[in-house]
Amino acid sequence: MCGLTGAFAFTEAGAVALERLQMASDALQHRGADASGMFVQDQVGIAHKRLSVIAPTADADQPFTDSQGRFTVVLNGEIFNYQKLRTDLQAKGVEFRTASDTEVVLQLYKREGQDFLKKLRGFFALAIYDSRDKSLFLARDRFGEKPLLYYKDGDKFLFGSELAALLELGVPRELDYTSLYQYLQLTYVPAPASMLKGVKKLLPGHSLFVKDGKVHSSMWYRLPFDPDKAAHNRLPYKQQQAKLYQLLEQAVSDRLTADVPVGAFLSGGIDSSIVVALAAQQVDKLQTFSVGFPGHPYFDETKYAQLVARKYNTSHTEVLLTSNDLYDGLYGMLDSMSEPFADSSALAVYSLSKQVGQKLKAVLSGDGADELFAGYNKHLAEYKVITENTGASAIKRMKFLWDVLPKSRNSFTSNKVRQLQRFAEGAGLAPHNRYWFWATWQKEDEALMLLNPENRSAAASRLYIARKSRLLDCLDKKPYDLNSVLCADWNLVLANDMLPKIDLMGMSNGLEVRSPFLDHRLVKFAFSLPSSSKIDGAKRKRILLDTFKDVLPVELQKRQKQGFEVPLRSFLISEGSELLSELLADDFVKEQGIFDVHQVQKIRKSILSGNSAAAYTTVWSLIIFQYWWKRHMT
After folding, report:
1. In Å, what is the CA distance from 152 to each residue of 46, 135, 175, 197, 581?
2. What are the CA-CA distances from residue 246 to residues 119, 239, 534, 553 (Å)?
């Protein structure tokens, strides 16, 4: 787990970026404080920051060059099957100088070329320079667990683990209004776009080959989703369960591969609890960590985490956060974001990672299970629409009531009203529009109105519809059912929200987060299952609960799904009010010229009224963007 960056100069003008390589590397210091290295040869420069998890010895530091001096590699991530791959290569006569997975990656590329990626089990972003061929090869893992951004013009090709590195290398600081428009709806910018024009995120499962001033993009992995085959899967349910147990158990075992201790996040939910149950069978006194909000019982899940910790005798730590604690971590979190990212739960993940990172370098998590097995409220809502549930019809007819009742995410009752109102509004839409409505926090016209009138045309045009349809192409496959929605979530929500959140917040504190549910063998199997195995009536994650019911405390099996959230309204009107007043002040908004000052005023006032659930997220998105703008764009 590390940070990488580099530049490939095509002209003398492009070579200026090589002089800035050290600054770009320094911008990634938080991603790896154990070692630092640079490689500069002719027109290419590559830099690396290392967090040592596998082979934590100096001979495995990066950039790593082969014994012939031809190939040089930098790797961010871990290859869990590297020992088997190493044994296979040794049987073919390959000699190794280190015990690292990085050298295995380099030797595979030397022997097999770009096809070697399909042999890797793990998560990674990598770059390999061939000094003889004068070429650069870059690749990203199957699902986008590790980030990689790049920029190309006529003079140079630049890349890095975070936008901060590319900013130091000199990319143009020009705002992409279409990306801003999507950010205001989603709270993040989906790949391949970034908040800056010209800077792209390499898509999951894709690679780049740079040579002679040209960049060739390839897809080396595609999510194996065939809705027709899944719908007609005839594997008996008991056998499905047996296969799921075997695959997840193996995935947990693989992700314990390390030369340092590995712990686990334990939220109190089903997913992380299953992971802890399986890991605790292999690790004595597994270190587990949960976060709680003692002043806000609705957001506090620590009592459920305690049940699992006691059942499996883990060495458990609770990180209990007040609004003051959130504020103490706020600027550290904000400074860790070189692109706006407004999922508010990132603040809690940052605070948790800060505490855990002082004890460990790697932890397991339960990320990905909701997208595989239908764990979100919107999945149950979609199921009710598809099956024409009679209760769904009643909720739609009562939309007039949900529209007028108070809605927020701060209590069970007001949050339930919020959910009913969103269901009633979305249920009558066509599948694409319904999905987009339930995936976003703000409607398209509301997001557009936040922008200054002169900026709205730039945001609403330029392939917006085409970009959105690429993200949602799973919904076009036939037959359409709940698996189609899960596939769309995998491409949009998981890859662009959940995984960047975990990577950014973990790596800001020198912590690597590994999720067994992202094992590509498990993912392939999950997407081969019919939707009936995942949801049945009101029971979400059906097969997950049925398969692992014996390892979970009964209380967890009966509890309602609760997202990992923070008490955002309470924070915004207390400790966070200072940021709100500073970054959304009329004078600053007017001078900046991006947003409509009158619309921002209305949003600010709605926070104080407490009646608009969406307003908290909108204000948070604006605050995150404004802080980023002041830090990186002015």
Report:
1. 16, 15, 16, 11, 38
2. 20, 11, 17, 21
Q: Three-state DSSP class for 400?
A: helix
| pTM of the shown model | 0.93
Are 197 and 237 in a shared domain? Answer: no
Where helices occur in 193-290 by DSSP H, the ranges are: 227-231, 237-254, 270-280
Cβ atoms of 75 and 126 closer than 8 Å: yes
Span 497-539, pLDDT tens digits: 999 999 999 999 999 999 999 999 999 999 999 999 999 877 8
In a domain, 62, yes or no: yes
Written as one letter, the residue type at 267 is S
CA distance readout (Å), 495 to 204, 492, 518, 606: 8, 6, 11, 31
For residue 47, what is the enclosing H or E element? strand 44-50
- What's the order of all strands across the beta sheet hosting 287-292? 315-320, 287-292, 262-265, 362-364, 512-514
Q: Are 277 and 229 in contact (CB under 8 A)?
A: no
Q: Structural domain tally of the chain?
A: 2
User: 326 and 297 in one domain?
Assistant: yes
- The C-alpha torsion from 270 through 262 and 358 to 515, rounded to 10°, is -40
- Could you tell me where the DSSP H helices lie in 344-407? 345-356, 369-373, 377-386, 390-397, 399-404
Please choose, from the candidates 441, 439, 402, 437, the residue with its C-alpha nearest in 3D space to the C-alpha of residue 419.
402
Q: Which residue has the tokens 């002082």?
A: 358
**DSSP H or E segment with residue 149:** strand 149-152
pLDDT digit string, tens, across residues 126-139? 999 999 999 999 99
Show the low-confidence residues of the chain (pLDDT under 50). Answer: 400, 462-467
Cβ-Cβ contacts under 8 Å for 187 (sequence gap 6 or more) = 341, 342, 343, 344, 441, 497, 617, 620, 621
Return the pLDDT at 463: 43
Residue 205 lies in a domain: yes
Query: Residue 25 and residue 42: Cα distance in Å, rounded?
Result: 19
Q: 259 is written with which tokens?
A: 């030369």
How far, in Å, are 48, 62, 164 from residue 116 at the CA level? 22, 20, 30
HSE-up (13 A, CA, CB side) for residue 305: 23
Handedness of CA 527, 533, 539, 543 (dihedral sign): negative
Q: For position 494, which CATH number holds?
A: 3.40.50.620
Buried b (16+ CB within 10 A) or exposed e, 529-544: bbbebbbeeeebbbbb
Triad 447, 184, 449: Cα angle to 5°: 20
pLDDT at 466: 44
Q: What is the pLDDT of residue 612?
A: 60
Report the alpha-carbon distance of residue 22 to residue 30 in Å, rounded: 14
Query: What is the domain range of residue 126?
Result: 2-219
Helix (H) or strand (E) holding 330: helix 323-335
Return the CA Rg of the chain.
Answer: 24
Is there a domain that residue 77 lies in?
A: yes
In a domain, 55, yes or no: yes
Which of 319, 376, 305 is CA-nearest to residue 348?
319
> Do residues 354 and 306 share a domain?
yes
Torsion angle of the four alpha carbons 471, 472, 476, 481, in this order, in degrees rounded to the nearest 10: 140
- Inter-residue contact 516 to 268 (CB < 8 Å): no
